[in-house]
């Protein structure tokens, strides 16, 4: 089984650009490349998927235990030639200071994946070896097999860094990449702009792959990636059999405004017998006839005018709610289901109106990071006191007098560091800022499906 994990020394070191370039270079060699992203991010995987034409998968150790991560990889990679895993933040960065708590390093160990470490070589020479040696020695069980030096302008500078790292660290240096603004990707308040919003990506990524081939030894990366198979004891068969819903369907919002979904969430719904009916809150006149509705996150604040203009769609969702059709909405979906939305220019737009309240964009992050919700009442996903793990990442606040359905709790190094109320439940509709992976608590989906059978 061929697999590599591309990690960085820190966020912003260039691992996403390098990862995308390597994925494209391998794809141009007619290899089936299965991409993955460590952590909960939705946007980087959208670029992976665009390049490889295979759905990128999130490997998140907060929401998923080791066996579930191995299950996802063993299933998704079985017909791939090589798996490329993009790390998150720095190699050892996760929750707190525990090196095995939601880190790229931990993911590499459970998957037995060789690590290629991306470093910033700007204004460094032999000191680069000291940095790499620290990463090597911090955890001897992490298999750092290669280094890529980013942000180096000349080959002569690169050769000094390469010689130092290989002599003092005994780790192979696989190449370098010069600074090039042509390959920078547009961003906004939540990070990179999703791939569905950007034209001409194919040309950009083909050019990136050509440059990667010039400076980085792709043949050697393929050789390094040859590792042992992995197996998992996690199984879905009995759960699917016990909860199969024949003849049911679910309407899923998917367009430029709403596109944040973990692929396994949708595939699990399919395995459970539900017909997937995608719809656009921006373009379609009304929601398709369905037994359930799922509205993921995204950027409704960017497309608020189009959302407001599509009154017939908003009315159809209100009618579905009034018919007690189970509706589950995450983050941008919560913003959509409120009365109104105020963007960063202080423009106010009408939304669906299931929940009384206004989503208001702010200039900074309001919530960021992993947390879990403990249900204060029965909802379409949870019975009272049940727990859902996930993450929040948003610049908006939802101003409302609606009662909250969950107590949200954030912990670090075994201690509670923050606690607040969140999520809103009305009838068979639940909307929350929490993004979750369904595998973390399959009971949630069992609860959700049961609401549609009543």
UniProtKB/TrEMBL annotation:
CobB/CobQ-like glutamine amidotransferase domain mapped to chain residues: 250-441
Gene: cbiA
Sites annotated Increases nucleophilicity of active site Cys: 435
Organism: Romboutsia maritimum
Keyword ATP-binding: yes
Protein name: Cobyrinate a,c-diamide synthase
Enzyme Commission number(s): 6.3.5.11
Keywords: ATP-binding, Cobalamin biosynthesis, Glutamine amidotransferase, Ligase, Magnesium, Nucleotide-binding
Misc note: The a and c carboxylates of cobyrinate are activated for nucleophilic attack via formation of a phosphorylated intermediate by ATP. CbiA catalyzes first the amidation of the c-carboxylate, and then that of the a-carboxylate.
Role, per record: Catalyzes the ATP-dependent amidation of the two carboxylate groups at positions a and c of cobyrinate, using either L-glutamine or ammonia as the nitrogen source.
Top class in the EC scheme: ligase
Biochemical pathway: Cofactor biosynthesis; adenosylcobalamin biosynthesis; cob(II)yrinate a,c-diamide from sirohydrochlorin (anaerobic route): step 10/10
GO biological-process terms attached to the record: cobalamin biosynthetic process
């Amino acid at each position: 089984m061929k697999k590599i994990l591309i990690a960085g020394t820190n966020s912003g070191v260039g691992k996403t650009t390098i990862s995308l370039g390597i994925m494209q270079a391998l794809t141009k060699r007619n290899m089936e490349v299965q991409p993955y992203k460590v952590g909960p991010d939705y946007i980087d995987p959208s670029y992976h998927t665009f390049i490889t034409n295979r759905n990128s998968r999130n490997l998140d150790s907060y929401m998923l235990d080791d066996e579930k991560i191995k299950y996802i990889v063993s299933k998704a990679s079985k017909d791939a030639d090589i798996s490329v895993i993009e790390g998150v933040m720095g190699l050892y960065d996760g929750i707190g200071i525990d090196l095995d708590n939601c880190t790229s390093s931990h993911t590499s160990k459970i998957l037995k994946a060789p690590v290629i470490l991306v470093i910033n070589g700007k204004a460094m020479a032999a000191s680069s070896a000291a940095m790499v040696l620290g990463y090597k020695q911090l955890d001897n069980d992490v298999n750092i097999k290669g280094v890529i030096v980013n942000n180096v302008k000349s080959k002569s500078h690169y050769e000094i860094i390469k010689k130092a790292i290989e002599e003092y660290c005994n780790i192979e240096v696989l190449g370098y990449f010069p600074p090039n603004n042509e390959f920078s990707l547009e961003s906004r308040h939540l990070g990179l702009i999703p791939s569905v919003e950007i034209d001409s990506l194919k040309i950009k990524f083909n050019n990136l792959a050509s440059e990667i081939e010039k400076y980085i030894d792709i043949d050697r990366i393929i050789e390094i990636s040859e590792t042992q198979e992995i197996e998992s004891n996690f199984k879905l068969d009995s759960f699917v059999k016990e909860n199969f819903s024949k003849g049911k369907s679910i309407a899923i919002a998917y367009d430029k405004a709403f596109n944040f979904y973990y692929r396994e969430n949708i595939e699990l719904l399919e395995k459970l017998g539900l017909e997937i009916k995608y719809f656009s809150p921006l373009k379609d006149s009304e929601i398709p006839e369905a037994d359930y509705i799922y509205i993921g996150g995204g950027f409704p604040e960017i497309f608020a005018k189009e959302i407001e203009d599509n009154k017939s769609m908003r009315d159809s969702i209100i009618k579905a709610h009034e018919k007690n059709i189970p509706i589950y909405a995450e983050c941008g979906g919560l913003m959509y289901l409120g009365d109104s939305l105020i963007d960063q220019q202080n423009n106010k737009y009408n939304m669906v109106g299931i929940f009384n309240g206004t989503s208001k964009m702010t200039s900074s992050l309001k919530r960021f990071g992993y947390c879990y919700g403990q249900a204060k009442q029965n909802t379409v996903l949870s019975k009272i006191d049940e727990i859902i793990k996930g993450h929040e990442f948003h610049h908006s606040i939802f101003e409302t007098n609606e009662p909250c359905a969950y107590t949200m709790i954030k912990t670090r190094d075994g201690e509670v560091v923050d606690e607040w109320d969140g999520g809103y439940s009305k009838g068979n509709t639940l909307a929350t800022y929490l993004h979750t992976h369904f595998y973390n608590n399959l009971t949630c989906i069992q609860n959700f499906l049961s609401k549609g059978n009543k």
